[in-house]
Design a protein that fits this description.
This protein is of the alpha+beta class. It contains twelve helices and 16 strands. It has two domains: about 120 residues, Aspartate Aminotransferase, domain 1, CATH 3.90.1150.10; about 260 residues, Aspartate Aminotransferase, domain 2. α3 packs parallel to α9 and α6 packs parallel to α7.
């Protein structure tokens, strides 16, 4: 079979979405259930801010769906990650290891704590943080030391040795893998490295609601996990995030801190910590509750779409990226791998000019001006992928629904 031309790709996407002319977005939300009903109910109740029954219902729905013992709502995934980092004991001038191939929110949330991001390479087969690259970097650059003062112990961690960067003398306080485009990282291997070095792992599962690693939902394997419900996610609240944890005391503290650390009282305003106005509104949670009711359908249809794309791109000159071994991915954003940077850019230019939205991967974090001076390991895989990744339209296709705008 001859290689597919870009015109073939454009025609196929338009045929798949049954849209011959209109603009086809990368990922649109789908409102096919009780969204209007719950929103009207929320408005009629007058509880549209952070007080109202839908926030609790949404937290319960996410906990039940993911299998996490506790789920705490936040206004977005970035805020959720910020709180998770703080509750893991990350402090100013610590270091937090993450991957360069990620959305800016991952590195931003680390920066909010005053910590320094350290960028370690990804695996080509997962797109996420590489356990072997992490182990190599730690072996070459870190050592375990017994703390000499109680102040040297992480606030939210157990007693024990702490990982110190031999060159900067900073504590390595957390590791944050991101499940890129919904594809799970090699969590068993990664957690083994984190355990060896006594570093907590916080999963950035912002893109991976509905993705499973060896039967466990992403975001439930580390000390914390976080989810996002931005407008372009599988489930959306317009905005919104969620903190996942199995620790009851940390869950209660997360709820407290995200609601301005206000001590419950009938009329007095008393606050016992520096808190954050990271609350999810009841009206957003109402939308999220309705969306969660459609999750099974959304995942089913997204996985069908991935199969359609996989079959089309066989022998096409582009490689369709499939879920890693032992994983069930949500295929949030489908992607193909171009031959090189030049062919990637030609594909991006021609598809977007034709009204079919495609996007490259994000600019690598270590190349951005605010993170350019951060430490990095060798980033061969991340650089290779960044030059070749093209995301293609991935919205859920619903029969009879206006799938494009």
């Amino acid at each position: 079979m001859s290689e597919k031309t870009i015109k073939d790709i454009i025609s196929f996407v338009r045929e798949t979405y049954a849209e011959p002319e209109a603009f086809i977005p990368l990922h649109d939300p789908r409102f096919i259930g009780n969204e209007k009903k719950y929103l009207v109910d929320c408005i009629d109740s007058n509880f549209v801010s952070s007080v109202g029954e839908y926030v609790g219902k949404f937290e319960k729905a996410c906990a039940e769906y993911t299998g996490s013992p506790y789920a705490i709502a936040a206004m977005n995934g970035t805020a959720a990650l910020h709180i998770a980092l703080m509750l893991s004991g990350v402090e100013r001038d610590d270091e937090v290891i993450t991957q360069p191939l990620t959305f800016i929110a991952t590195a931003n949330a680390i920066s909010y704590t005053g910590a320094h991001p350290v960028f370690i390479d990804v695996d080509k087969e997962t797109l996420g943080l590489s356990p072997s690259a992490l182990e190599l970097w730690l072996t070459e650059n870190a050592e375990l030391r017994q703390p000499t003062l109680s102040s040297q112990l992480p606030k939210a961690s157990s007693q024990g040795p702490i990982a110190i960067n031999k060159h900067t003398q900073r504590r390595i306080a957390a590791v944050v893998p991101m499940h890129t485009f919904g594809h799970p990282v090699k969590m068993d291997e990664l957690l083994a490295v984190c355990e060896k070095w006594n570093i907590p792992c916080i999963e950035d599962a912002a893109e991976s609601l509905g993705s499973y690693y060896k039967g466990k939902h992403t975001g439930t394997l580390g000390k914390f996990g976080i989810l996002s419900f931005n407008g372009n996610k599988i489930v959306t609240c317009g905005g919104g995030g969620m903190i996942l944890t199995s620790d009851e005391s940390l869950a209660k503290l997360a709820k407290h801190l995200t609601t301005q650390a206000k001590v419950p009282h009938a009329w007095e305003f008393v606050h016992d910590h520096i808190g954050y106005n990271y609350r999810l509104t009841n009206i957003s949670a109402a939308l999220g509750c309705a969306q969660m009711e459609s999750m099974k359908f959304f995942i089913q249809e997204k996985r069908k779409l991935a199969v359609i794309y996989k079959n089309f791109f066989k022998n096409s000159g582009y490689e369709f990226f499939c879920e890693p071994a032992d994983c069930k991915s949500n295929y949030w954003l489908n992607l193909i791998i171009a031959k090189d940077l030049i062919s990637r850019d030609i594909l991006l230019k021609e598809t977007n000019a034709a009204g079919v939205m495609t996007r490259p991967a994000w600019e690598l974090m270590n190349r951005l001006p605010m993170f350019r001076n951060c430490q990095s390991g060798p980033l061969k895989n991340a650089e290779w992928l960044a030059d070749r990744i093209v995301n293609i339209p991935s919205s859920v296709i619903v029969p009879g629904y206006k799938n494009c705008h």
